[in-house]
Write a structure and sequence with these properties.
By secondary structure, the protein is α/β, with parallel strands linked by helices. About 55% of the residues lie in helices and about 15% in strands. It has a 5-stranded parallel β-sheet, with helices on both faces. It binds P1-(adenosine-5'-P5-(uridine-5')pentaphosphate and magnesium ion. Catalyzes the phosphorylation of pyrimidine nucleoside monophosphates at the expense of ATP. Plays an important role in de novo pyrimidine nucleotide biosynthesis. Has preference for UMP and CMP as phosphate acceptors.
Protein backbone atom coordinates (compact mmCIF):
# COMPACT_ATOMS: atom_id res chain seq x y z
CA UNK A 1 0.00 0.00 0.00
CA UNK A 2 2.89 2.32 0.79
CA UNK A 3 5.38 1.80 -2.06
CA UNK A 4 7.54 4.70 -0.99
CA UNK A 5 10.88 3.65 0.48
CA UNK A 6 11.02 5.47 3.78
CA UNK A 7 13.50 5.47 6.64
CA UNK A 8 11.48 5.58 9.83
CA UNK A 9 12.61 6.04 13.42
CA UNK A 10 10.03 5.66 16.16
CA UNK A 11 10.48 8.13 19.02
CA UNK A 12 8.87 6.77 22.17
CA UNK A 13 8.76 7.71 25.83
CA UNK A 14 6.23 8.67 28.47
CA UNK A 15 4.01 11.76 28.37
CA UNK A 16 6.29 14.76 28.91
CA UNK A 17 9.53 12.82 28.45
CA UNK A 18 10.61 15.36 25.78
CA UNK A 19 9.82 13.56 22.51
CA UNK A 20 8.56 16.66 20.70
CA UNK A 21 11.34 18.90 22.03
CA UNK A 22 14.11 16.54 20.91
CA UNK A 23 12.44 15.78 17.56
CA UNK A 24 12.62 19.52 16.77
CA UNK A 25 16.36 19.43 17.54
CA UNK A 26 16.87 16.36 15.35
CA UNK A 27 14.96 17.96 12.45
CA UNK A 28 17.19 21.03 12.65
CA UNK A 29 20.44 19.05 12.52
CA UNK A 30 19.77 15.86 10.58
CA UNK A 31 17.18 16.59 7.91
CA UNK A 32 14.36 14.40 9.15
CA UNK A 33 10.67 15.21 8.89
CA UNK A 34 8.91 15.15 12.26
CA UNK A 35 5.55 13.40 12.38
CA UNK A 36 3.97 13.63 15.81
CA UNK A 37 1.00 11.27 15.92
CA UNK A 38 -0.55 13.39 18.67
CA UNK A 39 -0.13 16.60 16.62
CA UNK A 40 -1.71 14.91 13.58
CA UNK A 41 -4.67 13.79 15.70
CA UNK A 42 -5.06 17.29 17.20
CA UNK A 43 -4.98 18.79 13.68
CA UNK A 44 -7.66 16.31 12.66
CA UNK A 45 -9.90 17.56 15.51
CA UNK A 46 -9.36 21.18 14.41
CA UNK A 47 -10.11 20.39 10.77
CA UNK A 48 -13.65 19.42 11.76
CA UNK A 49 -13.29 15.86 10.43
CA UNK A 50 -16.04 13.32 11.12
CA UNK A 51 -13.70 11.54 13.56
CA UNK A 52 -12.91 14.77 15.41
CA UNK A 53 -15.29 14.33 18.31
CA UNK A 54 -14.24 10.72 18.89
CA UNK A 55 -10.54 11.68 18.82
CA UNK A 56 -11.10 14.60 21.20
CA UNK A 57 -12.91 12.34 23.68
CA UNK A 58 -10.16 9.73 23.59
CA UNK A 59 -7.39 12.30 24.10
CA UNK A 60 -9.28 13.85 27.01
CA UNK A 61 -9.41 10.38 28.62
CA UNK A 62 -5.79 9.54 27.76
CA UNK A 63 -6.99 6.59 25.66
CA UNK A 64 -5.41 5.30 22.45
CA UNK A 65 -7.25 6.21 19.25
CA UNK A 66 -8.03 3.21 16.98
CA UNK A 67 -4.97 2.25 14.91
CA UNK A 68 -6.63 2.71 11.51
CA UNK A 69 -7.29 6.40 12.20
CA UNK A 70 -3.73 7.22 13.27
CA UNK A 71 -2.11 5.07 10.58
CA UNK A 72 -4.13 6.78 7.85
CA UNK A 73 -2.87 10.19 9.03
CA UNK A 74 0.74 8.99 9.25
CA UNK A 75 0.63 7.26 5.88
CA UNK A 76 -0.82 10.33 4.16
CA UNK A 77 1.86 12.54 5.72
CA UNK A 78 4.62 10.17 4.60
CA UNK A 79 3.29 9.96 1.04
CA UNK A 80 2.74 13.71 0.74
CA UNK A 81 6.24 14.55 1.97
CA UNK A 82 9.18 15.15 -0.37
CA UNK A 83 11.42 13.70 2.30
CA UNK A 84 12.19 10.02 2.83
CA UNK A 85 13.45 10.22 6.44
CA UNK A 86 10.86 10.41 9.21
CA UNK A 87 10.74 10.65 12.98
CA UNK A 88 7.44 9.18 14.08
CA UNK A 89 6.83 10.62 17.54
CA UNK A 90 4.44 9.04 20.05
CA UNK A 91 3.47 6.08 17.88
CA UNK A 92 3.05 3.06 18.04
CA UNK A 93 1.39 3.24 21.47
CA UNK A 94 0.23 -0.37 21.75
CA UNK A 95 0.66 -3.74 20.09
CA UNK A 96 -2.32 -3.16 17.80
CA UNK A 97 -0.77 0.13 16.56
CA UNK A 98 2.56 -1.57 15.96
CA UNK A 99 1.32 -4.65 14.15
CA UNK A 100 -1.19 -2.71 12.02
CA UNK A 101 1.39 -0.09 10.98
CA UNK A 102 3.89 -2.71 9.88
CA UNK A 103 1.18 -4.68 8.05
CA UNK A 104 -0.45 -1.71 6.30
CA UNK A 105 2.66 0.26 5.34
CA UNK A 106 5.22 -2.52 5.07
CA UNK A 107 7.57 -0.25 7.02
CA UNK A 108 9.68 -1.45 9.93
CA UNK A 109 11.64 1.12 11.93
CA UNK A 110 15.43 1.51 11.61
CA UNK A 111 15.45 1.78 15.38
CA UNK A 112 13.44 3.08 18.30
CA UNK A 113 14.66 6.11 20.22
CA UNK A 114 13.35 5.67 23.77
CA UNK A 115 13.30 8.52 26.26
CA UNK A 116 13.37 7.28 29.82
CA UNK A 117 12.19 9.59 32.60
CA UNK A 118 10.60 9.28 36.05
CA UNK A 119 6.88 10.04 36.30
CA UNK A 120 7.35 12.79 38.89
CA UNK A 121 9.61 14.72 36.51
CA UNK A 122 7.26 14.17 33.54
CA UNK A 123 4.30 15.30 35.69
CA UNK A 124 6.16 18.49 36.66
CA UNK A 125 6.88 19.26 33.00
CA UNK A 126 3.33 18.63 31.81
CA UNK A 127 1.74 20.69 34.58
CA UNK A 128 3.95 23.67 33.73
CA UNK A 129 3.65 23.43 29.93
CA UNK A 130 0.64 25.79 29.69
CA UNK A 131 -0.17 25.25 26.04
CA UNK A 132 -3.85 24.65 26.64
CA UNK A 133 -3.80 20.93 25.89
CA UNK A 134 -7.03 19.29 27.10
CA UNK A 135 -4.97 16.41 28.51
CA UNK A 136 -2.52 18.47 30.60
CA UNK A 137 -4.50 18.26 33.83
CA UNK A 138 -3.62 16.00 36.74
CA UNK A 139 -6.57 13.58 36.23
CA UNK A 140 -5.76 12.98 32.55
CA UNK A 141 -2.00 12.91 33.19
CA UNK A 142 -2.47 10.01 35.66
CA UNK A 143 -4.52 8.14 33.03
CA UNK A 144 -1.85 8.80 30.38
CA UNK A 145 0.86 7.39 32.68
CA UNK A 146 -1.21 4.26 33.33
CA UNK A 147 -1.86 3.67 29.61
CA UNK A 148 1.82 4.26 28.89
CA UNK A 149 2.95 1.61 31.37
CA UNK A 150 0.27 -0.94 30.48
CA UNK A 151 0.10 -0.55 26.68
CA UNK A 152 3.07 1.42 25.34
CA UNK A 153 6.00 -0.01 27.32
CA UNK A 154 5.29 -3.51 25.91
CA UNK A 155 5.93 -2.08 22.43
CA UNK A 156 9.34 -0.80 23.58
CA UNK A 157 10.03 -4.24 25.09
CA UNK A 158 9.08 -5.90 21.81
CA UNK A 159 11.58 -3.79 19.83
CA UNK A 160 14.16 -4.24 22.58
CA UNK A 161 13.88 -8.01 22.08
CA UNK A 162 14.86 -7.35 18.44
CA UNK A 163 17.85 -5.26 19.57
CA UNK A 164 16.32 -2.11 18.06
CA UNK A 165 15.98 0.17 21.09
CA UNK A 166 18.36 3.06 21.77
CA UNK A 167 17.63 4.28 25.28
CA UNK A 168 18.31 7.83 26.43
CA UNK A 169 18.24 9.27 29.95
CA UNK A 170 15.62 11.99 29.38
CA UNK A 171 15.64 13.37 32.93
CA UNK A 172 18.64 15.57 32.17
CA UNK A 173 18.48 19.10 30.73
CA UNK A 174 17.28 19.62 27.14
CA UNK A 175 20.85 20.33 25.99
CA UNK A 176 22.33 17.32 27.78
CA UNK A 177 19.66 15.03 26.35
CA UNK A 178 20.37 16.34 22.86
CA UNK A 179 24.09 15.70 23.34
CA UNK A 180 23.22 12.03 23.88
CA UNK A 181 20.81 12.05 20.92
CA UNK A 182 23.55 13.44 18.66
CA UNK A 183 25.79 10.45 19.33
CA UNK A 184 23.04 8.17 18.04
CA UNK A 185 22.31 10.31 14.97
CA UNK A 186 25.91 11.02 13.98
CA UNK A 187 25.64 8.56 11.07
CA UNK A 188 22.85 10.75 9.62
CA UNK A 189 24.96 13.92 9.69
CA UNK A 190 24.74 15.84 6.40
N1 LIG B 1 10.79 19.69 28.45
C1 LIG B 1 11.14 18.85 27.45
N2 LIG B 1 12.35 18.30 27.68
C2 LIG B 1 12.78 18.78 28.88
C3 LIG B 1 13.95 18.58 29.66
N3 LIG B 1 14.94 17.77 29.27
N4 LIG B 1 14.06 19.22 30.85
C4 LIG B 1 13.05 20.06 31.28
N5 LIG B 1 11.92 20.30 30.56
C5 LIG B 1 11.79 19.67 29.40
O1 LIG B 1 7.95 18.28 26.57
C6 LIG B 1 6.98 18.46 27.58
C7 LIG B 1 7.33 19.73 28.37
O2 LIG B 1 8.56 19.54 29.04
C8 LIG B 1 7.53 20.96 27.49
O3 LIG B 1 7.05 22.08 28.17
C9 LIG B 1 9.04 21.02 27.28
O4 LIG B 1 9.51 22.32 27.09
C10 LIG B 1 9.55 20.45 28.60
P1 LIG B 1 7.57 17.65 25.13
O5 LIG B 1 8.79 17.71 24.29
O6 LIG B 1 6.33 18.27 24.64
O7 LIG B 1 7.32 16.13 25.58
P2 LIG B 1 6.52 14.99 24.85
O8 LIG B 1 7.19 13.71 25.22
O9 LIG B 1 6.36 15.29 23.40
O10 LIG B 1 5.14 15.11 25.63
P3 LIG B 1 3.65 14.93 25.11
O11 LIG B 1 2.76 15.49 26.16
O12 LIG B 1 3.49 15.43 23.71
O13 LIG B 1 3.58 13.34 25.09
P4 LIG B 1 2.36 12.40 24.94
O14 LIG B 1 2.94 11.13 24.48
O15 LIG B 1 1.54 12.34 26.16
O16 LIG B 1 1.44 13.18 23.89
P5 LIG B 1 1.06 12.90 22.38
O17 LIG B 1 0.76 14.18 21.76
O18 LIG B 1 2.02 11.98 21.76
O19 LIG B 1 -0.33 12.11 22.56
C11 LIG B 1 -1.44 12.73 23.19
C12 LIG B 1 -2.64 11.82 23.15
O20 LIG B 1 -3.02 11.56 21.80
C13 LIG B 1 -2.44 10.43 23.77
O21 LIG B 1 -2.58 10.43 25.16
C14 LIG B 1 -3.55 9.64 23.07
O22 LIG B 1 -4.78 9.92 23.65
C15 LIG B 1 -3.52 10.27 21.66
N6 LIG B 1 -2.66 9.49 20.73
C16 LIG B 1 -3.17 8.30 20.20
O23 LIG B 1 -4.29 7.89 20.51
N7 LIG B 1 -2.41 7.59 19.30
C17 LIG B 1 -1.17 8.01 18.93
O24 LIG B 1 -0.54 7.31 18.11
C18 LIG B 1 -0.65 9.21 19.46
C19 LIG B 1 -1.42 9.92 20.37
MG1 LIG C 1 4.68 15.56 22.10
Amino acid sequence: LCDKKATVIFVLGGPGSGKGTQCSNIVEHYGFTHLSAGDLLRAEIKSGSENGTMIQNMIKEGKIVPAEVTIKLLQTAILESENDKFLIDGFPRNEENRAAFERVTGITPEFVLFFECLEEEMERRLLSRNQGRVDDNIETIRKRFKVFVESSLPVVEYYDSLGKVKKIDAAKSITEVFDDVKVIFSSFAP
